[in-house]
Amino acid sequence: MAGVSEATVSRVFNRVGPIKEETRLKVLKAAEALGYYPNAIAQSFARRKSGNLGVVLPYVPKVHIFSTYYFSEILSGIGEQVRELGYDMLLIFRKPGDDNGYIELFRSQKIDACILLGTTDTPEERKALRALKEANHPFCLVNQHFAGEDFLEVDADHEQGAYEAVKHLLDEGYRRIAFLNGPPGYSNSADRLKGYVRAMTEAGIFNPVDDPDEAIPAQWLETGNYSRTSGYESAFRFARHLDSIDAVFAANDRMGIGLIQGFRELGVLPGRDIAIVGYDDSDGARITDPPLTSVAVPFYRMGALAAKLLLKENADEAVSEFQEGVNHISGHLYQMATRLVVRSSSAGSQA
Amino acid sequence: MAGVSEATVSRVFNRVGPIKEETRLKVLKAAEALGYYPNAIAQSFARRKSGNLGVVLPYVPKVHIFSTYYFSEILSGIGEQVRELGYDMLLIFRKPGDDNGYIELFRSQKIDACILLGTTDTPEERKALRALKEANHPFCLVNQHFAGEDFLEVDADHEQGAYEAVKHLLDEGYRRIAFLNGPPGYSNSADRLKGYVRAMTEAGIFNPVDDPDEAIPAQWLETGNYSRTSGYESAFRFARHLDSIDAVFAANDRMGIGLIQGFRELGVLPGRDIAIVGYDDSDGARITDPPLTSVAVPFYRMGALAAKLLLKENADEAVSEFQEGVNHISGHLYQMATRLVVRSSSAGSQA
Known about the structure:
The structure is a homodimer of 351-residue chains.
Chain A: H1 6-14, H2 21-34, H3 37-46, E1 52-58, H4 69-84, E2 88-94, H5 102-107, E3 113-116, H6 123-134, E4 139-142, E5 153-156, H7 158-171, E6 177-181, H8 187-202, H9 212-215, E7 221-223, H10 228-239, E8 247-250, H11 253-265, E9 275-277, H12 283-287, E10 294-296, H13 299-311, H14 315-320, E11 326-330, E12 333-336, E13 339-341
Parallel strand pairs in A: 1-2, 1-3, 3-4, 4-5, 5-12, 6-7, 6-8, 8-9
Antiparallel strand pairs in A: 10-13, 11-12
Helix pairs in contact in A: 4-13, 7-8, 10-11
Keywords (chains A, B): DNA-binding, Repressor, Transcription, Transcription regulation
Protein name (chains A, B): LacI family transcriptional regulator
Domain HTH lacI-type (chains A, B): 1-47
């Protein structure tokens, strides 16, 4: 209508580049006649970056999410990078199962990129994440792997971590090793199950089977929800089979600490009457009695790497700054190594 | 220039209310001639709320801030309210001593209101906060009191909390009670000092003096930085005076746990050879050996109240939803009660 190119219109509204006053007025009049203003301006604003990195967290009423070692360490690592790279960090709480408005967060310019924590593998979640990817919105998952997708993911090698934890117990002479896992919707629960079964199968205790679940005697497998309370309660269930259990591998420290407390109450002394190994190497592992053998996961560095991958242009550069312990598995999957930390809760063979 | 009122200009740019097409064009032409557009539009955007509650956190490299009980609990409480009231939470990291751009956060529409955590009482901080108040930007301080100002503050009664901790040790028969405080820039360090001196003075151990510092024998007072390591190191300094010390009150649990570890290494058994009392009642207090007597501070509720006071129109309503434990001290200062939790680290008199 103004007889000018789209680029000229853009230059007028963004006040970019040289423009004849006459052309300028022509564009503005046409825009006014077409009611074009507010959108054009909105778009020009839209192009401004928010300067915010979004972090989506699961919201569960009464759960003090920042007080869990897992989330707090990842957030600290993200925070470090956000600060270094001049961003702020927008925390968004989503109730698990909520209609997740991930795309809306980008559309409304609240965030430039997004890290998703505590996601679980459900059809709805996969659908939402695929939509985000198709719309080219940059996001990264931490500590959760969606097999068969090509999402940007920073994970840890939990299968190997669990394998080494159980191998350690075997090396100490324990053979009757039970496993307290977390909920199956998390890929890292499934990974730990695989590592546990692999070690037990290699040791000749389990028969090689296709489905890891089938390899395990029923009284040796419990499922908690990663809380201390669920570990505490499991101690009482395991205690019914103490004649056939001499060690328990817990999928995180909170549950491991709960096990220690439960067993103590029953008069079963951890580190003497039963071996316990946890997972995460949280602060708590150092101060329990006995101190808890655990598997260190570099959550802080995982959070930092995720932020770096999203906020830096060049992924190779982002990874190279981490120097060691990062494996580029395939596509957009980065995996970090874990490390066994032996303490007295698993010392001393009973064999 | 267009011969219309300011309100009309505003209506044109905000597309609010009825407006004659002729007037509209007149305003737009005048605006164009004056180069007025972008600002006007920017202002109209400015009026849109961001939907974000800002939380300013101190940034210290290598410190995993979310992993400290204190910050993580306050953030969890803020998070609960933010979620309930339909906001998101923007975390902003500031290096202590940084030129704090608090006002800029409001001007750039990144946040609607702001909670400041971990501030210290310095002339620069007071100046920045006064400027924020004068500009009518809503903000709230948590766990830090600026005497003589009228800032919105949610604090805990740390003087009473410290008093009760020391009173408990006195009741258990301890008299030679040393104190490991945190840095003096925090009002809550000063409060705890007052509570300690009040209890010791009431018991006739200290002479009544004006300056609490002067009342305390030098070997009974140490200053740490609220880290576990600083508690650990203090144990070795206190240990040189073990003939004149039979109990230590630590200003937080991290330092208390460090003390336990340090004393154990020296062969001095906490709970038997020396009594230890911590402060915060963190998760760690429950799992040390011996479990640590501590003072519970409702950090979670303090964070929640701060968010509520900022995001709800009506302060009385916000407070009334907390039912108990909130005292409206004066002006905009709200104070919550603490609670002593007795465990075996302080049990058994040696008197």
